[in-house]
């Protein structure tokens, strides 16, 4: 039974009130409608809910009222170049035997034929996308590096649940505006600015400058801001406990729970207990970090 600390957060607001919020069994039953089944012989992709931890069939792992779910995605890797090359080889054989070059319609039929033949032998790749649900405070956080990857989970939830009108988190201040203020010297309470940053110009050339492991305190940064460059990414640490990179779209990336957090669970006796302790600690930190970040961004925008 393993638990992997989240590396990214795509944050969403759960509907309020949410009928499932007090019933983990109800959510489990609805997710079971789309439990993961591996790809069939002709399926290029399969996706569905899978137990987020080992040793149980439960699709919702509940620790102290905090829930963990996992979407499993399996794809057959059949490169388009392989299909194209085989179809062209067969087209060349037809041209040699029958004296004419196959047209577009026949080429499409050849590609479809090759795909049907090769698909069952295609290599299968499987991965999980995890999501944390805080039914008490109304948060859904997906461990995905982009909104596109997170959308896989959102779409699966919409298909599985009777109703799921989730909303993307919006704040009074845009992340760009807030990060500009912070870099100009108005550091938010509870947060420290780290040594990574990316600034982009608003001109057509979209000139950008990146700083890695570089102090952001000097006049150089302020000069870039004065010239019209805006922050696209900024590394921050919250209360010396969690570090992360905030993006211009409000995404949280490179999330890292520092040693003071992870060491709190080292006394657990077995793997299952350790996994639960780590998830509980992570959820506990996020339940404090998220409101603090929202406050630094001017509060949640009324929707």
Topology (SSEs and partners):
Blueprint: E1 10-13, H1 24-31, E2 45-50, E3 61-63, E4 66-77, H2 80-98, H3 104-118, E5 123-134, E6 139-142, H4 147-160, E7 167-168, H5 175-183, E8 191-200, E9 208-211, H6 219-226, E10 230-238, E11 242-247, E12 252-257, H7 259-262, H8 271-296
Antiparallel strand pairs: 1-6, 1-7, 2-4, 3-4, 4-5, 5-6, 8-9, 8-10, 10-11, 11-12
Helix pairs in contact: 2-3
Keywords: Cytoplasm, DNA recombination
Main location: cytoplasm
InterPro entries: RdgC (IPR007476)
Task: Give the gist of this structure.
One of its GO terms (biological process) is regulation of DNA recombination. The protein is built from eight helices and twelve strands. It has helices spanning 24-31, 80-98, 104-118, 147-160, 175-183, 219-226, 259-262, 271-296, and strands at residues 10-13, 45-50, 61-63, 66-77, 123-134, 139-142, 167-168, 191-200, 208-211, 230-238, 242-247, 252-257.
Q: What report would you give on this structure?
A:
This protein is an alpha+beta fold. The chain has helices at residues 24-31, 80-98, 104-118, 147-160, 175-183, 219-226, 259-262, 271-296; strands at residues 10-13, 45-50, 61-63, 66-77, 123-134, 139-142, 167-168, 191-200, 208-211, 230-238, 242-247, 252-257. The strands form 2 sheets. Strands 1, 2, 3, 4, 5, 6 and 7 form a 7-stranded antiparallel beta sheet that branches. The chain has a 5-stranded antiparallel beta sheet with strand order 9-8-10-11-12. Strand 8 (191-200) and strand 9 form a beta hairpin. Helix 2 (80-98) crosses helix 3. The longest helix has 26 residues, at 271-296.
């Amino acid at each position: 039974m393993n638990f992997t600390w989240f590396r990214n957060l795509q944050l969403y607001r759960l509907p309020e009130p949410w009928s499932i919020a007090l019933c983990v069994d109800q959510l489990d039953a609805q997710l079971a409608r789309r439990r993961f089944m591996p790809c069939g012989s002709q399926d290029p992709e399969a996706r569905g809910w899978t137990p987020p931890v080992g040793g149980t069939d439960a699709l919702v792992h509940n620790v102290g009222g905090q829930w963990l779910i996992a979407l499993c995605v399996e794809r057959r890797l059949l490169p388009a170049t392989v299909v194209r090359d085989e179809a062209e080889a067969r087209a060349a054989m037809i041209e040699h035997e029958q004296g004419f070059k196959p047209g577009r319609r026949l080429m499409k039929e050849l590609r479809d034929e090759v795909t049907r033949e090769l698909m069952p032998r295609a290599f299968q790749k499987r991965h999980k996308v995890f999501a944390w649900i805080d039914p008490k405070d109304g948060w859904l956080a997906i461990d995905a590096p982009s909104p596109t990857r997170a959308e896989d989970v959102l779409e699966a939830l919409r298909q599985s649940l009777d109703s799921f009108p989730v909303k993307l988190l919006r704040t009074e201040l845009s992340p760009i505006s807030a990060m500009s203020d912070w870099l100009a010297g108005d550091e938010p309470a509870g947060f420290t600015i780290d040594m990574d940053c990316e600034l982009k110009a608003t001109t057509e050339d979209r000139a950008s400058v990146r700083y890695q492991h570089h102090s952001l305190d000097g006049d150089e940064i302020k000069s870039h801001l004065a010239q019209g460059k805006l922050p696209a990414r900024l590394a921050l640490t919250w209360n010396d406990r969690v570090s992360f990179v905030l993006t211009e779209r409000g995404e949280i990336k490179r999330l890292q729970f520092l040693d003071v957090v992870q060491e709190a669970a080292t006394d657990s006796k077995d793997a299952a207990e350790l996994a639960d302790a780590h998830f509980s600690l992570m959820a506990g930190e996020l339940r404090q970090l998220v409101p603090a970040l929202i406050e630094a961004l001017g509060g949640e925008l009324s929707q």
